[in-house]
Amino acid sequence: MEEELEEELLREILSFYKGKRGELIPILLEVQANFGYLPEEAILLIASFLNITEGQIYSLASFYSLFRLVPLGRRRVTVCRGTACHIRGGTQILQEAEKVLGLKEGETSSDLEYTLETVACIGCCALAPCIRVNRDVHGEMTLEKVRELFPTSNED
Amino acid sequence: MSSKRVLVCQGTGCISGGAEQIFSSLEEEIARFNLGESIQIKRTGCHGFCQRGPLVVIEPEGIFYSKVAPDDLPELAGSLLSGGKLAERLFYRDPITDKPIAHYRDIPFYNKQQRLVLRNCGNIDPENINDYLAVGGYQALRKALFELAPEQIIDEVKRSGLRGLGGAGFLAGQKWEVCRRATSDGKYVICNGDEGDPGAFQDRSVMEADPHSVLEGMLIAGYAVGAEHGFIYVRAEYPLAVKRLRIAIAQAREKGFLGKDILGSGFDFDVEIFQGAGAFVCGESTALVLSIEGKRGMPKPLPRPRTAEVGLWGKPTLLNNVKTFANIPLIITRGSEWFAARGTSRSKGTAIFSLTGKVANNGLIEVPMGITLRKIIYDIGGGIPGGKAFKAVQTGGPSGGCLSAELLDMPVDFDSLTTAGSMMGSGGMVVMDEDTCMVDVARYFLDFTWRESCGQCIPCRVGTEQMFNILDDITKGEGRPEDINLLLELSEAVVRGSLCALGQTAPNPVLTTIRYFRHEYEAHIREKRCPADVCQAL
After folding, report:
1. Tens of pLDDT, residues B309-322
2. Per-domain residue ranges of chain B
3. What is the C-alpha separation between A88 and B210, in angstroms, rounded?
């Protein structure tokens, strides 16, 4: 049942496009916005819609840092690796987030609650160091604020 | 009737501090006074002083409230009533004298700037086209369409001396002329809002705070080069910029500034937004074009035609940065002479920097080209906080370099920065103090370029990785005496052998840190010591 719904949603997304190659990135972004990642079935369907091979889609999806081929956690924790964040202690913020969440950079918790990632820069450099949780940016982070942000995880 | 305007900054920085809540609660407080139109409250884009956010500015007086919290709102609202007392505790305090300052025109962070491109940022509601029209918006477009021929516009842009503000500093007018002269059955205008440099956020702020100035610049460019279609390529990490641009495009279409037969001139032009998917290399023109075509963004090797001649889908394509387009309405309205009177002999106009790092005042600043680094860092930036000593300033992101204290009195423009081994780049300016390790900074940037290399050419793909490995070893205390020379040798190979600017400039952070801070490398290698006490392994 759920699979049918997914395919229905996919077809609805594709109905807004014309089937041109230049639409590939916009389609992938929209599919990912709806599903949280790029499911294999979606890639097959998009390939036939645009009349290109799945390989061409994987080639593109693995080139751009935004695309994900596996499901992510409900809360995406993104630590900024920007220059201002780096020199104001971003590395320690990442280490603390890894410790508190019990995850390494790039990992997702087995209950799909958290994913821990880094990003090249979110452009909130005046508030460095920064963390983004889903779409909310938290600036001027300290180790203590990292612990406050994720209070329930891994605390004995 | 005199009316007060309450401007609540809704830039990404202030929003992260709760500015959306501040706006709605303050709106309710003000509504309770029942004073009708005499107090207007507005959402604005980024006011620039993100570090002090959430910001609330009261006009026409120019009262500046910083770090506003929900608890402060009853007091702040009360201050708006006639005879109301100003909420002094929310004033900005001078970092040196600790004196509270009421008006933003008295705050050195603002009054030492020259805001041209940022003229509307923080003063108008970016989601309301009427605000842009009220400050003279789209007048330049009218002038261009009805008083100037395309060639005259290109002449104006050439005479202004405006150089592309995306990093390379190519003369904008020349690029426009090449695109105008190319014959084709279709042309494109692309605004590069990819801003992939870590440590830079000025393009984001302009798109968020004054999207119509970018659209107006693109429209004038489209008319001048003979294009009917435009794209704004926006970095995926900037959802608010995308939202505001979408609103701006819809409102501009409604008012007849975009679409068919614009203002009855017979000129057709429309713009769509293209969201990037995260690749630093897409800041390069041919890579960006491939990305819009739905392909991997891998720069095309030279020799090749210029993008202005053969670009998107093989058509002539004019590609300029966000800030370059935002300058165009000013040049058309006020004239090339007015513009060229600003800046230095070879770098005209202003430069916009994201001033961040170990400096008291962090934020977005606009200054005339030719100002010294010292004025930027000490007068506008308020110096280094915590009584620490200045060590370096990094400009130009991963393509730029770290400049030392002996260069503080250097006038900043495209050419002086390049001579010093750095570059203007997209305008990041990160200040570093005595607690910053310069070897760690070089390692940081090579880690970035190595990850972001598209991989098609070996000098960049393998060279940056090898350089990173050597730097990593040095920061772990495993550096060898010959490593400094090896880094210099590898740098030369990567600079000379790489296909595009990403590789050609990637060694700059290493070359400048060796040039100005060689002793730090030596301390790591010979004494196994990190002078700034940053490298954890030492």
Report:
1. 999 999 999 999 99
2. 4-110, 133-340, 350-433, 438-526
3. 30
Nearest CA in chain B to A57: B295
Residues A45 and A81 in one domain: no
pLDDT digits (tens, 9 = 90+) for B447-474: 999 999 999 999 999 999 999 999 999 9
Query: What is the average pLDDT across B414-423?
Result: 94
Interface check B13 vs A, CB under 8 A: yes
Same domain, A143 and A119: yes
pLDDT in tens, B290-302: 999 999 999 999 8
Say yes or no for a CB contact (<8 Å) between B294 and A23: yes
Q: Residue B113 to residues A123, B110, B343, B369, B376: CA-CA distances in angstroms? A: 21, 6, 13, 11, 9
Range of the domain at A53: 2-63
User: Domain B438-526, what architecture?
Assistant: Up-down Bundle (1.20)
Do A11 and A46 belong to one domain? Answer: yes
CATH number at residue A39: 1.10.10
- pLDDT, tens digit (0-9, with 9 covering 90-100), for B84-106: 899 999 999 998 889 999 999 99
Instruction: Look up the CATH superfamily of B133-340.
Output: NADH-ubiquinone oxidoreductase 51kDa subunit (3.40.50.11540)
Question: Which region among A49-63, B161-175, B517-531 has the lowest average model confidence (pLDDT)?
Answer: B161-175
CB contact under 8 A, A28 and B50: no
The verdict on B441 touching A (C-beta cutoff 8 Å) is: yes
Give the count of domains, chain A: 2
Residue A101 falls inside a structural domain: yes
A23 inside 8 A of chain B by CB: yes
Put simply, the answer to whether A29 touches B238 (Cβ < 8 Å) is no
Is A48 within a domain? yes
CA distance A9 to chain B (A): 21
Low-confidence ranges of chain A (pLDDT < 70): 1-3, 152-156
**A54 and A84 share one domain:** no
Q: Which helix (H) or strand (E) covers residue B431, if one does? A: strand B428-433
Cβ-nearest to B293 among A22, A26, A125: A22
d(CA B279, CA B288): 9
- The reported pLDDT for the residue numbered B516 is 98
Residues A84 and A135 in one domain: yes
* In the predicted structure, residue B352 carries a pLDDT above the cut 60: yes
What does the pLDDT look like over B372-382, one tens digit per residue? 999 999 999 99
Q: Inform me whether the C-beta atom of residue A36 falls under 8 Å from chain B C-beta atoms.
A: no
* ∠ CA B501-B513-A88, rounded to 5°: 95
Nearest CB to B13; choose among A25, A82, A124: A124
Can you list the pairs that B149-158 forms with residues at least 24 positions away whose Cβ atoms lie under 8 Å? B150/B180, B150/B223, B150/B224, B150/B225, B150/B226, B151/B180, B153/B220, B153/B223, B153/B224, B153/B332, B154/B180, B154/B224, B154/B225, B155/B336, B156/B331, B156/B332, B156/B335, B156/B336, B157/B224, B157/B328, B157/B331, B157/B336, B158/B336
Q: How many residues does chain B have?
A: 538
- CATH number, domain containing residue A127: 3.40.30.10
Is A106 an 8 Å CB contact of chain B? no
| Per-chain mean pLDDT for chain B | 95
CATH 2.170.120.20 corresponds to the domain B4-110:
no
The top-level CATH class assigned to B350-433 is alpha beta
> In this complex, is the C-beta atom of B444 within 8 Å of any C-beta atom belonging to chain A?
yes
Give a yes or no: residue A119 inside a domain.
yes
Taking the Cβ of residue A43 and every Cβ of chain B, the question of whether any pair is shorter than 8 Å is answered with: no
pLDDT tens per residue across span B322-349: 999 999 999 999 999 999 999 999 999 9
CA-based nearest distance A154→chain B, Å: 26
pLDDT confidence of residue B426: 80
